[in-house]
Amino acid sequence: MGAYIDNRWCAYKSWKQAARKRQKRQKLILGPQYRNALHDECMMAVVLGHTGPLMVKILAFSHPSEIEYVKTLFANKIDITFNNGNLVISN
User: Fold this and answer.
1) Which of 9, 13, 17, 38 has the most neighbouring CB atoms within 10 Å?
2) Is 83 left (phi over 0), alpha (psi -120 to 50) or beta?
3) Do residues 87 and 35 touch, judged by C-beta distance below 8 A?
4) In this predicted model, which residue has the larger pLDDT, 1 or 10?
5) Can you tell me whether residue 64 is helix, strand or coil?
6) Which has the closest alpha carbon to 89: 59, 11, 6?
7) Alpha-helical regions (H) of 1-91
8) 22-51 burial string, b = 16+ CB within 10 Å, else e?
9) For the CA atoms of 34, 28, 64, 51, what is the dihedral angle to 10 degrees?
10) Are the C-beta atoms of residues 45 and 91 closer than 8 Å to each other?
């Protein structure tokens, strides 16, 4: 009982196929001054699971070139932690 292996693919193509499906983990690290500004939205995201208001507020603080990064970060489930006083949002 083993996994199906297609003999027409070399090892490189097999690993490329498997690795393509894995998404790269993203992190957004915000300084301590944002902790108070985003406190209510972070609590709503953690307790109730509503990440929309948090994303809208972060987009308001973001530079226009960062908008796509923030949207892809919030496309999946997010984790919110504090590390050395910084607010860390990751998926």
Assistant:
1) 38
2) beta
3) yes
4) 10
5) helix
6) 59
7) 11-20, 33-37, 39-47, 52-61, 67-73
8) eeeebebeeeeebeeebeebbeebeeeeeb
9) -80
10) no
The H or E element spanning position 29 is strand 27-30
> What was the pLDDT predicted at 61?
86
Tokens 């507020």 sit on residue: 57
pLDDT per residue as tens digits for the range 5-61? 556 666 666 666 666 555 678 898 888 888 888 888 888 888 888 899 999 999 998
Q: Which residues contact 15 (CB under 8 A, 6 or more apart)?
A: none
Would you state the structure tokens that stand for residue 27, as one six-digit string?
Answer: 């992190």
Q: Which residues touch 70 (CB under 8 Å, ≥6 apart)?
A: 28, 55, 58, 59, 62
